[in-house]
Amino acid sequence: MKGKFIKLLASAAMATSLLAGCSSGSGAQAQTYKKGDTVKLGLNFELTGSVASYGKAEYNGAKLAIKQYNAKKGHKYKIKYESQDDKGDAAESTKAAQKLITEDGVAALIGPATSSASIATYQTATDNKVPVISPSATQQGAMENDGKVYDYAFRVCFEDSYQASAMAKFASQNLGKKRAVVINEVSDYGKGLADTFTKKFKSYGGEVVATESYNAGDTDFASIITKVQKQDFDVMYLAGYYTECGLIIKQAKEAGVNATILGADGFESEVLAKQAGAQNLNDVYYTTAYTTVNASDQLKEFIDAYHKEYGTDPNMFSALAYDSTNLVLQALDKSGAGGEKLQKQIKNIKFSGVTGTFTFDKKHSPVKAVMVVNQVNGKQTEAVPVTPDK
Predict the structure, then answer these.
(1) What is the helix (H) or strand (E) element at residue 385, kind and residue range?
(2) Which regions of 247-312 does DSSP assign to beta strands (E)?
(3) Which residues form the Leucine-binding protein domain (predicted)?
(4) What is the SS3 assignment for 207?
(5) Low-confidence ranges of the chain (pLDDT < 50)
(6) Phi and psi at residue 152, to the nearest 5°
(7) 90: which of 9, 120, 348, 359 fits an S-S bond (Cβ 3.0–4.6 Å)?
(8) CA nearest 244: which of 268, 270, 276, 222?
(9) C-alpha to C-alpha distance for 42 and 66, rounded to whole angstroms
(10) Taking Cα atoms as reference points, which of 282, 296, 303 lies closest to residue 374?
(11) pLDDT in tens, 315-339
């Protein structure tokens, strides 16, 4: 059903594109660039709404990459960005992508942060031959429509099944956990994580003794916690975002739950500690593509530059968008063009950034390690790379 809906949106967007033949964006996707030309990138992020924490972090990461490129001695082009607020809504995101492509004439799109808003742009981008790079669209199968890979869509994050599999392996083999409770948000993201974790945890000999779910926006989890406390378990896997998961952690700890708590990259926000209380973020692990533990020199330089620019430290989302933008800029320098030439350069790229070194697989997802980080009073203290079993 989702694929059909997106196709309908894309068809409408394509019609708009045909009517916009004389706009400033006409032909931009096929343009060849010479040194000194101004090239536009489109930044499509959740700047308002319930997941604005993610979108703003990615927006800042992308802007920093562009600023650094323009300040670099001998840079090939002058990069300008056009931005849109998709509000975390799929329909708004499609409209934003269409405007950036047909009216603003961007060579490539960066964002959005969330899977549903990102997926909504892929057909429009592919129809117009404009590459779109998703920093954090982790949804399982996001890069395909009815089994066919979107030619112009790429992501620099691992997909949900990959990180959930890594966490199941870590819980069983590294932590020695045997009995799990799984609590997930009612969404593609939450259910995808929960289903994969459950399947993989069982494959390692573990048992899932209870599964509960909640809706985005819920704030009182007492009934769920009361139910699971009737079970004997040594680990709790939370499949959702920081907004609700922080409150679940807080309420579970205050109710006397002593089990290890695990999560996914939806935990990645400074708001998590505010929601949960830093004192409750002990023996809490989550999967991520980014950690400052044992930071490389390249990562340290990024952290310093980001802090100088914005007065705060970057998080995983900032770093993924920073890498996404630098990847496009590297490909743009080598291709010297938009459209098919830029797409081919991205598809075959070997990229080294602050979230790791990777290439793209045949489904346009990166081949990279998952990091599992531990927290002590809300601060990352160790990071373990985990490669999930197939």
Answers:
(1) strand 379-386
(2) 260-263, 284-288
(3) 38-376
(4) strand
(5) 1-27
(6) -110, 10
(7) 120
(8) 276
(9) 11
(10) 282
(11) 989 999 999 999 999 999 999 999 9
